[in-house]
Each structure stands twice: as structure tokens, then as C-alpha cells.
Amino acid sequence: MAACTAAALVVGFLLTPAGDTVDNGKWQCKVAITPVAGAADTVRADQVLSYAQGSAVTTAAAQKLHLTDVAGLTARRTVVAESPQMLLFTTTGPTQPSCLELAAALSEATIIGYAQESKKSADESIKRLQNQADAQQKQLDDLQKSFSKANASDQAKLQPQLSTATAALTKTLGAIADLQNYSQTDAIQQWGSIDAKELGGSLLSSPSRGVRLTLAVVLGLALGVVAALMLSRMDTRLRTRDGTEEAFNLPVIGEIPSLSRRLRRLREPLVTARPADPATEAYRSLRSTLLLTGPEALSGQLGQGGLDPDDRRVRRAVEPAPVVLVMSGRSGDGRTSTVANLAAALGETGRQVLVLDCDFRQPELNEQFGMDEGPGMAELLSGEQRTDLVELIRPTRVPNVAMISGGHATAYPAALVLRAGEVLALARRHADVVLIDSSPLLNANDAYDLVQHADTVLVTLMAGNVRPEEADRVSELLARTGVPVAGVALLGAEVATGRRHRGLRLPGRLGGGRGEPGAEPGRPALPGGPAAAERVVEQHRPEPHRAEPHRPESARPEQRRPEPRRPEPRRAEHQRAADGRRGEPVYGAAGEGAARRDGTTSWGRRPAELPPEEPVETTLQLRLGEER
């Protein structure tokens, strides 16, 4: 609409004169010209029309009106032959008097000018006939002399010649008399009075440039509205919650409003930079929904914040942290900003979050946290350098959030992602939650290779960036992996219209990616079974889950554990963890020491012991010098 309005304004400005002009089409006058009585036989309409259309009439009218713009005066009059005996002059003018004056001047100039032309032509004809009459008179005189001298027989012969010469002379003299009378009177005259009426003009011929530019703006706006409606009909990109759920066949678990350009330029997550902003509350709502509908390892850590440092380390060794893969179909879907803000929102709950930047094609996660580039996942996965995973964990200014940046990828990104399984297994024991930022699924295969190592997937979508067929392709690819899909986070969401679709493929009904009983094969499952799926449908925005005090494993029948804990081994693990703290690096948020005052462990502590079900050493651990 703005483009059409601006274009119409520019065109209107260029096509209108700089100053105000006179609207010569506001009044219209008509006057008829006919031959005088008795002159119809001698006046030819084509001759009168040819004379009236000539420049002599317009010039004479301009002189009478004391005007110098003869061309402009010519443009204001038209003359046509209404019939063989009538000419019609039509004039226009800005006012009634000016229109009447022009019509009268043209009528008078035509009558007088044609009379003068007729007199001039008659004089020439009289002169020619007079010469002819003189010759005939001389011939007649000669015949009369011969007739008077001739005898009776000769007079009889000369009498016919004498009569013929006399008749010819009489005819010539009669024609001369008629021409003399014709040249002394007008051949044409005005028929009736001048007919004048007001046309009213139009906006297109308005004398004011402002009026014409206003008209151009109105026309541009109307054209813009039509163009916008046509584009809206033809544009099928997803913009609303209803359309997103229908296209992905997944629930929208978070709707993030549009952010201003100033907020998008922040080098810090919005959750920490603007805690009271509506978008921050939307990210918190997304966090709460993800905790309730995510995997058991994620939803079962509601009391994690109450553990002391040693208990936290021991629990990580027994129960590795869940991995949440944040992905999108196309670039520009707000995937990286969602990872940063979701990490900050999870950090508010007391969980220690480790963020991995696995977008090796365009790593930008360090910019979200206001950090410089450095070695990261690319160096760790390539194996070109003996790099310890703990050494690459960098604390951020966001509480309880650390990250490993993308690094500088020298190998092909797809080859790096294929080696990510063992690295992620180690990263699970250094945090409570692991968030992964990946490449767009439809643009690269990196995200598809990372899905198999994740516990749940969160899809991000920027309103107006993805078409339904692309969303359907993303949903199809995710369904083939068998990994639970938590849902879709819609950024820049518009107000939804209509009723929501109830037939969604919710995580609990997507199928048994993790051995969920009763699930369809090849599709992710929602923790909690069909009952949890129905609860998600009925509650689109669940309230944040209240943290519960830590309970022993026997009090949690819904969570499965590899092995039941025993008091004796746990005390032994505590003892080994206490002994292993000596000499280990400590790294966390700026200003943190070896142990935090609030009792929480720092990021740098290594796990006390590997999980019993995993091998003690792996190929990647030997290569990187990881913990034994």
C-alpha cells in the first residue's frame, strides 16, 4: 500500500504543472451560424466551414478579446457542420463571461470575415463581368450601326444577331447588379442566442496541484488495498497459530510476539535484558510447556534446583541430562534467538543449561550472548587437536547458562555432525539440560543427523517465512526419525482466527520413537502417554509447574531408572566425587570460585563416575583425553 501510494504521488507530481492553472473546461457555450435569408443558394457550407476553421477567425477573435495566446484560444473552440445550412461553434472557459465572450467573438469574427471575403470575391466577379459587358456593348453597337445602314432584306438577316447580343448584355448587367447587391449585405448570420451551461469540471482538471496530489494519494491507496488483498490471497505462507498447526500437524506450544528492531539487535537474551517484556513472558511460557510435555528426563527434574553440588554431580552420572534439539525448516526462523532465550528461561528455574552451537554453516549463537568467537564444536568434532570438552565450555553472563560455540569449521559440516554422538554423550554429564542449535532442516542435512541423538525436538517458525508444503516436508522428515517432537514455537505470531484444529499429531500420538507402549511405529511419543496428549490439547498454555521437593526414587513410580539406587553405593560415589575435586578446573559465570555460596556446583566439575550402562572409555575419549 505504501509503495502504490508513493508511486501515485510521484506520478501525480510529475504530471501536474508547478503552479496553479486555470480550468478552461468548467463552462461551455454554443452558437450557431446560418446563411441570411435569400442567400442560401449563394452560400456554400463547406466554404464557410473551411473559413471558420482557419487561423484568420481565431486571430481576429484574439485581437477583439485582447489576448495573445492564439494557440490556447484555438484549443478552447471547436466548429462543426451540424447540417448543410448550419455551423456550430462550441467554446469552453473557466467562467461564464469568458466563455460567452469567446463564443461571441468567434461568431462575430466569422460573420464579418466571411462577409469581407464574400465582398472581395464579388468585386472580382463584378470587375470580370463588367469587362464582359463592355465587350458585349461594343458588339451590340456595331450590330446596330450595320442594321441602320442595311436594306430591308439585310436587316431581316441582322435582326436575330441584334436580339442575341442585346439579351447577352442584359444578362451580364443583371449579374453585375446581383453581385453588387450581394456584396453590400452579409451572407451569413448568427442563429439565435448563445447557449451557455456549467460543466462543473472534474478533479482531474482541478486548478489546484494540492487537489490533484490528494486525488493521486487516494487512487494510490485504493490500488494498494487491491494489491494487498490480491497478495494476501496468493501468499500462502504461515502466519497464524491455526495455519501452523494445520500445516505441521503439530501443536504450537509457544507464541512469541514480534520484536522491535532495537530489541532484535540486543547482544543478550531478551529474558535477561528485558525481564518484564511480553516476549520474555512468552519465552517463559514456552519453557513451562516444554518442561511439562517434554521427555521424562526433562520433566522429571522439577526438583533439581534443590540438590547440593555433590548430589547434582552424582545424579548427572546416573541420569545424563536430556538433549533438546532446536531446529527450523528454513533460515531466518528465529532458531538461534529461541535457543538463547530458552536457555536463559531454563536457567531461571535453577537448572544448569549447556548450549551447543552445531550450526557450522552460519554460527551466530555467540552473538546472542555477546561473546567473541573462539574454538568450539568444530574443533572438538574434527579431532584435529587434542581438545578437552571441559576446556571449551565457556560461561556466559546469563546465570546458570554456559555454551560451546561453533568454532571454526575446516571440514565439511556433514562430516562433523556424524561424529557428534560421543561428544553429546559426554556433554550430557556437564549440565542439567543440553540445548543444541542446528542448521535449517530443508537447507542442510546437519539437523537430520543430530535428531537421533536428541531426546526431544522443538521446531521454530517465523511467521511469514515458511509455506505449507515446506512445513509438511519438515513434519514428514521428523516423523521418520521416531524422535519425540515437543511442538512448534511460532515467532512473530499474529492473532489466531477461528477454532483450533483438534486432530493434531501430538507428541504422545506421534508414535513410539522411545518404546512407548501403544504408540505408532516410526513416530515420536509424548511422555505420559495418551492422557498427556489429551491434556496438551485441552490446555494450550499450561501454567508453570511448581517445583517439588526432591523425593527418593521409590516415590516416583512414573520415572524409569536404569538401576535402583542403594544407600551404600551412593555414599561411595559421594566419597569418590569429594576425592576427585582436587586439581579439577573450575569454570562458570564470571566471578565464581571453586564452590558457589548458594551451594550449587560450578560448570567445570567433571562427573564423579560414568553411568553403569555405558563403557568406561570410548574411542573419542581416548582421542580427546577425556575422563576415564
UniProtKB/TrEMBL annotation:
Gene Ontology terms for molecular function: ATP binding
Tagged with keyword Membrane: yes
Coiled-coil intervals, chain numbering: 119-153
Keyword flag Membrane: yes
Keywords of the record: ATP-binding, Coiled coil, Membrane, Nucleotide-binding, Transmembrane, Transmembrane helix
Annotated segments matching region Disordered: 502-628
PANTHER family: CAPSULAR EXOPOLYSACCHARIDE FAMILY, TYROSINE-PROTEIN KINASE
Transmembrane segments: 213-231
The protein's name: CobQ/CobB/MinD/ParA nucleotide binding domain-containing protein
Low complexity bias spans: 518-534
Compositionally biased tracts (Basic and acidic residues): 535-584
Top-rank taxon, per record: Bacteria
